């Protein structure tokens, strides 16, 4: 896979254990050292700040995308090379998707999971063909993976849509798995409408 930029979703806070922020910093650093650019939510606190600091400290390039009304609340990062200020949350997510070639989610709260699931469901309906990775620090995503198993066993989710989802401990393990990613065909809104009518 040809990956240039990686979009990272993660918490605006740091979580209970120091290892969460350490994993975020390490991911940012690993992204820079592997020669990728980081795309993220533009904040300077919590997991978001840590991932950006990791990339900046290692000499890598960072693009932050933040809605104007969150510039103060999420303390927009002053050291990232590019900070795009957009109007809405929807614009932020669409722009973060547009900029990145793969998405990695670190531990975080409801906002993080919302962003993760939007990317997962966009992939499921064929609006993008990008692999999604979860960094499973402190087994944080074990229960989420159990929920995916349940969605499949109860026949609310087709197993083939798991082709886009990978889980690992760090960037290296995820990028190795991304090589096995075989995207399902992309469908446009027009195709989806046609499918709906037939
Ligand atoms: P959290 O995981 O709750 O700490 O939030 C992490 C990031 O997700 C923060 O930058 C939030 O601004 C963002 N976020 C929260 N809710 C949403 C949403 N509905 N859509 C997109 N991003 C969100």
TrEMBL record:
List keywords of the entry alphabetically.
Answer: Cytokinin biosynthesis, Hydrolase
The record's listing under SUPFAM superfamilies reads: MCP/YpsA-like
- Mind listing the GO molecular function terms for this protein? hydrolase activity, hydrolyzing N-glycosyl compounds
Keyword Hydrolase in annotation: yes
Q: Name the top EC class.
A: hydrolase
| GO BP, one annotated term | cytokinin biosynthetic process
Q: Which Pfam families match?
A: Lysine_decarbox
Recorded E.C. number(s)?
3.2.2.n1
Gene Ontology cellular component list: cytosol
Q: Which InterPro entries match?
A: LOG, LOG_fam
PANTHER family named among the record's database cross-references: LOG FAMILY PROTEIN YJL055W
Which family does the entry's similarity section mention?
Belongs to the LOG family.
Q: Identify this protein by name.
A: Cytokinin riboside 5'-monophosphate phosphoribohydrolase
* Annotated source species: Salinicoccus kekensis
């Amino acid at each position: 896979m040809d990956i240039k930029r990686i979009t990272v979703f993660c918490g605006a806070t740091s979580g209970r254990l120091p290892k969460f922020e350490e994993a975020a910093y390490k991911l940012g650093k690993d992204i820079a050292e592997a020669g990728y650019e980081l795309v993220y939510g533009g904040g300077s606190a919590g997991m978001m700040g840590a991932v950006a600091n990791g990339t900046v400290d290692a000499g890598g390039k960072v693009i932050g995308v933040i809605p104007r009304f969150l510039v103060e609340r999420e303390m927009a990062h002053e050291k990232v090379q590019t900070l795009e200020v957009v109007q809405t949350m929807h614009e932020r997510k669409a722009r973060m998707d547009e900029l990145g070639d793969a998405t990695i989610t670190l531990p975080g709260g409801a906002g993080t999971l919302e962003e993760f699931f939007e990317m997962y469901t966009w992939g499921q309906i064929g609006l993008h063909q990008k692999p999604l990775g979860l960094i499973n620090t402190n087994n944080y995503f074990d229960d989420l993976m159990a929920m995916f198993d349940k969605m499949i066993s109860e026949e609310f989710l087709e197993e083939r849509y798991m082709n886009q989802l990978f889980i690992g401990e760090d960037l290296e393990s995820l990028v190795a798995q991304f090589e096995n990613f075989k995207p399902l065909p992309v469908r446009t809104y027009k195709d989806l409408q046609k499918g709906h009518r037939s």
